[in-house]
Specification:
Elements: H1 28-34, E1 39-44, H2 55-70, E2 73-77, H3 85-97, E3 103-106, H4 111-120, E4 126-129, E5 139-144, H5 146-160, E6 165-172, H6 175-191, E7 196-203, H7 214-226, E8 231-235, H8 240-249, E9 253-258, E10 274-280, H9 282-294, E11 301-305, E12 312-314, H10 319-322, H11 325-340
Parallel strand pairs: 1-2, 1-3, 3-4, 4-5, 5-11, 6-7, 6-8, 8-9, 9-10
Antiparallel strand pairs: 10-12
Helix pairs in contact: 2-9, 3-4, 5-6, 5-11, 7-8
C-alpha cells in the first residue's frame, strides 16, 4: 500500500487552551523512511483511556474503521498515571518515528505535545481532538461545536423533567466543558424558563480525576437528585458512568455524552435510564483525517464539526425518547433555528 507523507499547506488555527511542554523525539528523516511501510493511523488516548464508553472509545472506533478500510497497521496508546507533559510528546514522537501517519492526540492536554512533535516530524500529519491552538502546516485541529448538541440536550431535559429541576455535571472546570454547560443551560431556559438547572464541576484540574472517577460522578449526581433533579446531563468522560449509575438507581433520566451511551455494552444494565446522548462524532473526525492522508490531501488547520455538518447532535436509540413526538418536535425546531442562525448558542 502506498503511503503519503507529504502534507499540504492549509489555514491557521485560532486560540484556545493549551499546556506547556518540553521537546523530545526523533528526526523527520527517520519518520519519512519508516513511513514507507504499511503503518497508518495511530492515536494516543486522553485521561480515562480506552473503555471510557465515551470520548476515547469514539476515537478508537474511528481508528478501527480506518484499519478495516485501508488494511494497514494501526496503534493506540494509553496514558500513564502521573505522566509529565514531556511523556506525552515522547509518546507522539515515538509513534511518528515508527512510521505511523497520521498521529492523533485525543484531548486538549496534547496541545503542546502535538506542537512539539509536529515540529520534529514535518513529513507526518498530526491531529489533536478538542483543541484549536496548534498552528502548523502539518497539524489538524479537530474541534466541535459541543454547545450546539448540549443546547438540544437542554431542550430534551426541559421537555422531560417532571420536577422542573435538572442537573449538569462537568468533569473539570475548564473552557471546553463550559461549552457543554452553557449550551445545556441555554437550551433548558429557552424551552422552559421555570426549569431550574443545578450545575456542578467535579474537579478544577484533570489531574484530580474529574474525567476518570466514576465515584465522583456518582456522588455529584446523587447530590443533585436529592435536590429533586430528575434529568442529569454529564460531560465528564469516564466519570459520567457514575452519573448514569446514580440516575438508574434513583429511577431518573441521565443524558450521556460524546458517544451514544445507550448503545455501549458496558452500560447496558443502565440503558433504560439513558434518555439520549449529546454526541460529537470523534470517530468520524479521526477516520476523516486518516482518509485525507491516505488520499494524499491531508487535512490541516481547524476542522470543525457542528449541527450543520451532522457531526454533533442527539442520539435516538432509546425508543421512549425517539417516539416522544412532543420532545422530537421541540428538538427539530431548535436544531433548524440553530443551523439557520436564528438561535445563537452560547459557548461560555
Amino acid at each position: 500500500m502506498r503511503r503519503i507523507s507529504r502534507i499540504t499547506v492549509a489555514g491557521a488555527a485560532t486560540a484556545s487552551l493549551a499546556l506547556a511542554l518540553s521537546a523530545c523525539g526523533g528526526t523527520s528523516t527517520e519518520a519519512s523512511s519508516d513511513s514507507k511501510g504499511d503503518k497508518g493511523l495511530a492515536i494516543a488516548y486522553d485521561v480515562g483511556g480506552k473503555g471510557d464508553q465515551s470520548f476515547n472509545d469514539a476515537a478508537f472506533a474511528g481508528l478501527e474503521k480506518a484499519k478495516k478500510e485501508f488494511g494497514y497497521q494501526t496503534d493506540d496508546v494509553e496514558p500513564t498515571e502521573g505522566e509529565t507533559d514531556a511523556d506525552k510528546e515522547q509518546r507522539l514522537a515515538s509513534l511518528a518515528k515508527q512510521g505511523y501517519n497520521p498521529v492523533i492526540g485525543v484531548g486538549y492536554a496534547y496541545a503542546a505535545a502535538v506542537k512539539g512533535a509536529a515540529e520534529k516530524f514535518p513529513d507526518t500529519t498530526f491531529g489533536i481532538v478538542d483543541d484549536s491552538t496548534v498552528e502548523a502546516k502539518n497539524v489538524a485541529d479537530l474541534v466541535f461545536s459541543e454547545e450546539e448538541a448540549s443546547y438540544l440536550a437542554g431542550v430534551a431535559a426541559a421537555k422531560s423533567t417532571k420536577t422542573n429541576t435538572v442537573g449538569f455535571v462537568g468533569g473539570v472546570d475548564i473552557p471546553l466543558i463550559h461549552k457543554f454547560q452553557a449550551g445545556f443551560e441555554q437550551g433548558v431556559k429557552d424551552t422552559d424558563p421555570k426549569v431550574k438547572v443545578i450545575s456542578q464541576y467535579l474537579t478544577q484540574t484533570a489531574e484530580e480525576g474529574g474525567f476518570s472517577s466514576p465515584d465522583k460522578g456518582k456522588s455529584a449526581a446523587e447530590g443533585q437528585i436529592e435536590k429533586k433533579a430528575d434529568v442529569v446531563y454529564a460531560a465528564a468522560g469516564l466519570s459520567g458512568q457514575g452519573v448514569i449509575e446514580a440516575a438508574a438507581a434513583n429511577k431518573v433520566w441521565a443524558i450521556g455524552v460524546d458517544s451514544d451511551q445507550y448503545q455501549q455494552a458496558a452500560l447496558a444494565k443502565y440503558k433504560d435510564s439513558i434518555l439520549t446522548s449529546a454526541m460529537k462524532d470523534v470517530a468520524k473526525a479521526v477516520y476523516n483525517l486518516a482518509k485525507s492522508v491516505e488520499d494524499g490531501k491531508p487535512e490541516t488547520g481547524i476542522v470543525r464539526g457542528d449541527l450543520k455538518t451532522g457531526e454533533v447532535g442527539l442520539s435516538n436509540s432509546n425508543p421512549k425518547f425517539a417516539d416522544n413526538a412532543e420532545v422530537q418536535d421541540a428538538i427539530k425546531t431548535a436544531k433548524e433555528k440553530i443551523i439557520s442562525g436564528e438561535i445563537k448558542v452560547k459557548s461560555s
